[in-house]
Amino acid sequence: MKKLLSIVLVAVLSLTLLAGCGNSTATTWKIGGIGPITGDASVYGIAVKNGIQIAIDEINEAGGINGVQIEYNFQDDEHNGEKAVNAYNTLKDWGMNILIGNVTTTPCLAVTPLTAADNMFQLTPSGSSTEIIKNDNVFQVCFTDPNQGVGSAQYIGSNALAEKVAVIYNSSDVYSSGIYEKFREEAANQSFEIVAETSFTNDSKSDFTVQLQQAKDAGAELVFLPIYYQEASMILTQAEAMDFHPLFFGCDGLDGILTLEGFDTSLAEGVVLLTPFVADAEDAKTQAFVSTYMEKYGEVPNQFAADAYDAVYIIKAAIEASGATPADGYSVICDKLVAAMPTITVDGLTGDGMTWIATGEVSKDPKAMVIENGVYTNFQ
Question: 146-275 architecture in CATH?
Answer without folding.
Answer: 3-Layer(aba) Sandwich (3.40)
